Amino acid sequence: MEKQAQLEPIRKFRLYEIAVDQIKALILENQYQPGDRLPSERELAEKLCIGRPSVREALRILGLMGLIEIRIGDGTYVKDLSFFPYIDSVVSSIGSRLKMQAEFFLKLWEVRKILEVGSAGLACLRARPINLEILHQCIQQMEENIKNREAFIQAGIRFHQEIAKATENEILFLLWKSLWDMIRRGQDETYKAVRSPQLSIQGHKKIYQALQQGNSGESRRAMEEHLKFEEKVLLASLKGERKIKTKKSIAAKS
Q1: Pair 219, 207: CB distance under 8 Å
Q2: Distance CA 176, CA 116 (A)
Q3: Who is most buried in 7, 77, 160, 203, counting CB within 10 A?
Q4: 9 burial level (CB within 10 Å; 0-12, 13-18, 19+)
């Protein structure tokens, strides 16, 4: 009897995300050693068959992750990766356990709350005008895409990503990105659960306003309040999934 394995829909990737994964893999496999100079933007664009803006964004993210150093007027160089492979292996190990029991996912969510509340306080002290401008743009994109769930969610994730970037701590940003990779890998559909877009936007606005005012304590409180709202949505979604699975199981037996 042929074994029926459950296949999951392939998530859409942006070109720069694929470029990040490919370049990161080459670095981790030591095909590029610490101190090596990467090909130019033009050469990378030709080899990857993508546009230079996508290459530029990929390099920017790799720089924030601590993998490369971009030297203006000189080139892009691979950094010492003594810390990164360890984190990457931990992420892979944890991610393999998240296929996907609610218990593990809730623990992952606890980590998110600790990390993002702390990030909000630190970002408040270090955010630059460009960070605040991007956060404002994310809120505008959320308002413009209230009826477009995917675009709405992407704008929200970018908002939180920008806060992690604003901390100017590449290790913290790496942990944030790894955390979100696990969240999206483990429960992509759960994260897309039905929620109130207006309340979500309101929460993001409170965080933005606190950051803009330079109030670290209020930034942390606003982030904590927002994540409590998100957690309620998550719990309701997980509860709904369990009910659906139970009904399916009963139907299969009958």
Answers
A1: yes
A2: 8
A3: 160
A4: exposed
**CATH classification code of 84-253:** 1.20.120.530
Question: What is the DSSP-derived secondary structure letter of residue 12?
Answer: P
On whether the CB atoms of residues 147 and 161 are closer than 8 A, the answer is no
96, with CB counted inside 10 A (0-12, 13-18, 19+), is exposed
- Could you give the CA distance from residue 2 to residue 109 in angstroms, rounded to a whole number? 37
Would you kindly state where each structural domain of the chain is located, as residue ranges? Answer: 15-78, 84-253
More reliable by pLDDT, 41 or 245: 41
Q: DSSP class of residue 37?
A: B
Q: What is the pTM of this model?
A: 0.62
What H or E segment, with its residue span, contains residue 210? helix 197-213
pLDDT above 70 for 5: no
Q: CA-to-CA distance for 24 and 28, rounded, in angstroms?
A: 6
CA distance 32 to 86: 17
In CATH terms, is domain 15-78 a member of 1.10.10.10?
A: yes
Among residues 40, 53, 43, 41, the alpha carbon closest in space to that of 14 is found at: 53
Q: What is the pLDDT of residues 184-220, one digit of tens each?
A: 765 555 555 556 889 999 999 999 999 999 999 999 9
**pLDDT tens digits for range 102-147:** 677 788 888 999 999 999 999 999 999 999 999 999 999 999 999 8
In this structure, what token pair is assigned to residue 237?
């979604």
Joined tokens for residue 178: 């790894």
